[in-house]
Amino acid sequence: MKVPFFDYSRAYTDDRADIMRIIDTVAGRGGFILQKELEDFENNLAEFCGAERAIGVANATDGLELAWMTAGLKPGDEVICSAHTMLATASSIVVAGGIPVPVDIEQDGLINPDAVSDAINSRTRGIMPTQLNGRVCRMDKLMDIAKKNDLLVVEDCAQALGAKYDNKNAGTFGFASAISFYPAKVLGCLGDGGAIIVNEPELYQTLYELHDHGRGLDGKVKRWGRNSRLDNIQAAILDFRLKTYDTVIYRRRSIAGLYQSRLGEIEELQLPKGPSLTDVNFDIFQNYEILATRRDELKCYLRERGVGSLIQWGGEALSQIGELGMTAYLPATEDYFKRCLMLPMNCFLDDDNVHYVCDVISDFYRS
Ligand SMILES: *Cc1c(COP(=O)(O)O)cnc(C)c1O
Q1: What is the whole-number distance in angstroms between the Cα of residue 56 and the centre of ligand 1?
Q2: How is residue 313 annotated by DSSP?
């Protein structure tokens, strides 16, 4: 049996007939840029998240950049982020004129609120939690810290559409946040795409203008801006997929449950917390990231038996990248990145695929 980590072609072929119909309808009408399908999707997305507004953008990285650009960061201003996140989190701070300060993580790989507190100084202007692997950080603590220290919060929720903390959606805690529709994300499109979730109504106009050449909803220029629009065809496809998004989350959570039941007893592994309906976290399992003893050997063993796996961010935490001036020794991060590995987690897997992955892993630790 072959279980690829992610099968990109199926992101299209599984929905081929619907996608062709959507493209034909939208393109046949010439509806390419800033059309009704985009507006509908933005409204449905905001409603799904329980957010004020949403704005489609070209990708999540742009969304994060635009969010920080509204914050008026000054040279030397610091923004604290997690060491376990994509480079895009940090680069969005840099593009907006600030300095990213990566801090250490908790057992689950998410930013440690105590490490955030410890990193605060007179130059700190913001906190940027990453809602990693489809799980929300301890936002009660983080929002408390932000409030006490008068800090801005932008969430990187590229991986967390639909994840909740204490019944509140990822993306709705800070003043703004961004979601990614990269094809391998839980809600993926057929290329690049993203959205800004806007929680401060006064900021909506500004963010809207920034993403469309500084033009307002009336088409008049109000400021310098850029072009970071979400294509209308992509928006139409995303709107179609959003309708069944709950079943996608349900399936991912049941795969996580299956992994938990099959791998939970293996001492050499540390698994993500299993899906629970009573927990304060409601996870959507963008990724299934385990910590594994003899990780590199396990990865080879899986590959030789047809199972794809991936080490996130090419195996480097932000604090371990030599070239960009963020290097720091963060003990929990160092330990985590020696052992972390992502197993296949997506709706193309059937139960037999998951059982096969678990059989191979069980064999590896038995031998
Ligand atoms: C995917 C991802 C991004 C970037 O999203 P794009 O849409 O590709 O720009 C940013 N942060 C995290 C945590 C991600 O996983």
Answers
A1: 14
A2: G
Please check the confidence at residue 225 and state whether its pLDDT lies above 90: yes
Q: Which domains does the chain have, with CATH numbers?
A: 10-242 (3.40.640.10), 245-366 (3.90.1150.10)
Mean pLDDT, residues 102-117 taken together: 98
User: Ligand 1 centre and the CA of 167: distance in Å?
Assistant: 24
Residues of the chain above pLDDT 70, percent: 100
Average pLDDT, the chain: 98
Across 193-339, the runs of DSSP E, i.e. the strands, are 194-198, 269-270, 281-282, 288-292
The span from the CA of 174 to the CA of 292, in Å, is 33
218 CA to centre of ligand 1 in angstroms: 31
Pocket test of ligand 1: the residue of 93, 157, 159 to mutate, having most ligand atoms within 8 Å of its CB, is 159
CA of 299 to the centre of ligand 1 (A): 24
Q: State how beta strands 281-282 and 164-165 pair.
A: antiparallel
Mutate to test the pocket of ligand 1, among 182, 187, 230, 289 (most ligand atoms within 8 A of CB): 182
Give the pLDDT of residue 367.
Answer: 85
- pLDDT at residue number 244: 98
Which residues contact residue 25 at a Cβ distance below 8 angstroms, ignoring those fewer than 6 apart? 236
User: Does the structure show a pLDDT above 90 at 255?
Assistant: yes
